[in-house]
Amino acid sequence: MKQKTGILGGTFDPVHYGHLALAEAAGKLCDLSEIVLIPAAVPPHKQNRQITDFSHRAAMLEIAVKEKPTLHVSTIEKILPCPSFTIDTLQYLKLHSGVDLELFFIIGADAFLDILSWKNYQEVLSASHFIVFSRSGSRNKKLHKLFNRLGYSKGEDSWHHEIFQKSIFSSSLSLPTVSSSEVRAQVAKGHSAIKLTPKEVCKYITDHHLYSL
């Protein structure tokens, strides 16, 4: 029997409550056995922006999921070629997990709407199910048009691709509207980010003098 594993990638600079809520909501939506959070070593879309050292971002993630048994952190993108492309990560997971994985890629609507620009996007779609979260009805209309364009047909509770034998599960659950840039801005101003990210992560940020001007 395949293990249902959710994948949530991102820069996580730093991790915040929005990331954690997204992961846990996806786990409940598709009854996932585990959710793996994967910090990107060098995100393709952020190559021109200074990002915090990988070791710090991974360490903050480990701290954030410590008390959450279904959430785990993987640092595999540190050993993969840069920049970090989704297809490379998914293929590595399939080959080196040691168990038969059924992957569910967790993503926000805005990011999914850019999927046609991803490296080998059709291979990505054939390698994993998708769980797409959106916040507005207008986004849903755009999403549904894109699902159709990509070859998915609407079913009872998901969109299904007959050739890839993969599904897209979409949800408009209300999630915390937090961003990593908001956390960084609060810290840079000398304010507490305790409402945006776990207190242990706040302590790590302070102890390592991250994001301060």
Explain this structure:
With 213 residues, the protein is α/β, with parallel strands linked by helices. It has a single domain (3-177), classed as Rossmann fold. It has eight helices and eight strands; from the N terminus they run E-H-E-H-E-H-E-H-H-E-H-E-E-E-H-H. It has helices at residues 17-30, 54-65, 86-96, 109-112, 121-127, 137-149, 180-188, 199-207, and strands at residues 3-10, 34-39, 71-73, 101-108, 129-133, 152-154, 159-161, 166-171. The protein has an eight-stranded mixed sheet with strand order 3-2-1-4-5-8-7-6, with helices on both faces. A hairpin with a 4-residue loop joins strand 7 and strand 8 (166-171). It is globular.
How would you describe this structure in keywords?
single chain; about 210 residues; alpha/beta; Rossmann fold; 8 strands; globular
Summarize the structure.
By secondary structure, the chain is of the alpha/beta class. The chain has helices spanning 17-30, 54-65, 86-96, 109-112, 121-127, 137-149, 180-188, 199-207; strands spanning 3-10, 34-39, 71-73, 101-108, 129-133, 152-154, 159-161, 166-171.
